[in-house]
């Protein structure tokens, strides 16, 4: 069974609150999403664990939907680990780091200019599953995804990834086009978690950050769903 998406984040009120906030509101929301996804599949929802930040995994597992038994030609084009997210419409070129949720708590990188890819979910370019990339946002500016809600349908998003090391390293670029931009209040996001972050849909990219700063906290989340460019198959480099 594909892994259930973890809980989702809340924006940072200010830069100096990054570390403290990373273990707080974001973790709580991510727990709700995990429970919603598992419940929708008829599985037993776990008791939410206390939010304990975990270091990123250096060896993310191959996600469901990536067939490792195909011929050598296909294997050379398999999705790799994402390194950078480029969004021309937002003038964003941000590094991506793998993050995991061993205790059902997904904590993005503390630096709001660095994004986190859920390494137990789909990889960008996979045939199946939502490749989830999340990031903090800062209401005073400085977060890579601060203006995520301004994207429009048809805007392009590029994900640069790699497989292997040294002489065996192969780089690829996956191109997506924005299909949908939605802003959800926390409760609504939890109710739609199984649908929005499904690992059983055709391959797609999902970007997530927070929205609606009320002076003390963020009330909503921005969810951008982007679909792979038809017949793209990724651009190989190296």
UniProtKB/TrEMBL annotation:
Compositionally biased, Pro residues: which spans? 48-63
The GO terms this record gives for MF are:
hydrolase activity
Tell me the domain of life: Bacteria
Q: Where is the chain membrane-spanning? A: 17-38
Annotated stretches, region: Disordered: 44-69
Gene3D superfamilies assigned to the protein according to its UniProt record, in alphabetical order: Sortase (2.40.260.10)
- Fetch the Pfam families from UniProt: Sortase (PF04203)
The entry's keywords: Hydrolase, Membrane, Transmembrane, Transmembrane helix
Name this polypeptide is given: LPXTG-site transpeptidase (Sortase) family protein
């Amino acid at each position: 069974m594909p892994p259930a998406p973890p809980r989702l984040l809340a924006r940072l009120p200010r830069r100096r609150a990054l570390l403290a906030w990373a273990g707080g509101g974001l973790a709580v929301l991510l727990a709700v999403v995990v429970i919603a996804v598992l419940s929708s599949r008829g599985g037993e929802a776990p008791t939410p664990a206390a939010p304990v930040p975990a270091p990123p995994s250096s060896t993310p597992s191959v996600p469901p939907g990536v067939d490792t038994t195909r011929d050598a030609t296909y294997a050379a084009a398999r999705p790799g680990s994402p390194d950078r997210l480029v969004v021309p419409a937002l003038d964003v070129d941000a590094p991506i780091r793998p993050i995991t949720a061993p205790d059902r708590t997904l904590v993005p990188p503390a630096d709001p200019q660095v994004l986190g890819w859920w390494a137990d979910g789909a990889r960008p370019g996979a045939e199946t599953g939502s490749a989830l990339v999340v990031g903090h946002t800062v209401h005073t500016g400085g977060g890579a995804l601060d203006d995520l809600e301004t994207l429009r349908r048809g805007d392009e998003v590029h994900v640069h990834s790699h497989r292997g090391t040294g002489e065996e390293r192969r780089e690829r670029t996956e191109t997506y086009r924005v299909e949908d931009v939605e802003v959800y209040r926390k409760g609504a996001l939890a109710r739609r978690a199984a649908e929005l972050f499904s690992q059983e849909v055709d391959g797609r990219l999902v970007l997530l950050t927070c929205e609606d700063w009320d002076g003390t906290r963020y009330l909503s989340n921005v969810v951008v769903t982007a679909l792979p460019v038809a017949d793209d198959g990724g651009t190989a480099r190296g």
